[in-house]
TrEMBL record:
Protein name: Flavin prenyltransferase UbiX
Lineage: superkingdom: Bacteria
Entry binding sites for FMN: G12, A13, S14, S38, S103, M104, G105, T106, R138
Keyword Flavoprotein in record: yes
SUPFAM superfamilies cross-referenced by the UniProt entry: Homo-oligomeric flavin-containing Cys decarboxylases, HFCD (SSF52507)
Binding site for dimethylallyl phosphate: Y168, K184
InterPro entries tied to this protein: Flavin_trans-like, Flavoprotein, UbiX-like
Boundaries of every Flavoprotein domain copy: 5-188
E.C. numbers: 2.5.1.129
Pfam family, one: Flavoprotein
Functional note: Flavin prenyltransferase that catalyzes the synthesis of the prenylated FMN cofactor (prenyl-FMN) for 4-hydroxy-3-polyprenylbenzoic acid decarboxylase UbiD. The prenyltransferase is metal-independent and links a dimethylallyl moiety from dimethylallyl monophosphate (DMAP) to the flavin N5 and C6 atoms of FMN.
Organism: Citrifermentans bemidjiense (strain ATCC BAA-1014 / DSM 16622 / JCM 12645 / Bem) (Geobacter bemidjiensis)
Amino acid sequence: MKPRHFTVAITGASGVVYGLKVVEELLRGGSRVSLLVSEAGFAVLRQECGLDLAGTPGEILDGVRSHLGLPGELLGYYDLNDLFAPIASGSAAPDAMLVVPCSMGTLSRISCGNSGNLLERAADVMLKEGRPLVLVPRETPFNAIHLEHMLKLARLGVRIVPAMPGFYHDPETIEDLVDFVAGKVLDAVQVEHTLFRRWGSRP
């Protein structure tokens, strides 16, 4: 059976660790991942995770594989200027796309259909092909413009999964909180996981 294929995009919002965790879990589950990182996303990866990715697409891919500690045969990486990448076309659309975390700038451009790079074009492909698109905004407080864009996208079927960790599973570490958000993102695309204890289940 062919593995499910996901595009995962990391943008310049705080919380890039959520995106890395989602990629890790998808790969561990045997899914194929096409990774995108915005310019601001690279800066936040350096600041928040100490992950300095630079060089050719192959070198960036090796850096992600090394950081995750996974072989990564199912992991691919595309530069945002590579509009000839397969994920830029509806004829090769992945099963779903996850933008984790999603900056307000990226969210607004997706909402307006402003496809200026591969990330925005890949999201537009999801919308036009009726494929699952999940956005994970990490901003607070939201202003009316943010909320209007999210409502517009939600009405188009986009899943909006804010990076809001729960506490009913008795988290003890920051990793527990990261796992909760990553798990909710995976729930949105029906990917099984054991990242957190579900409501009503025994400890």
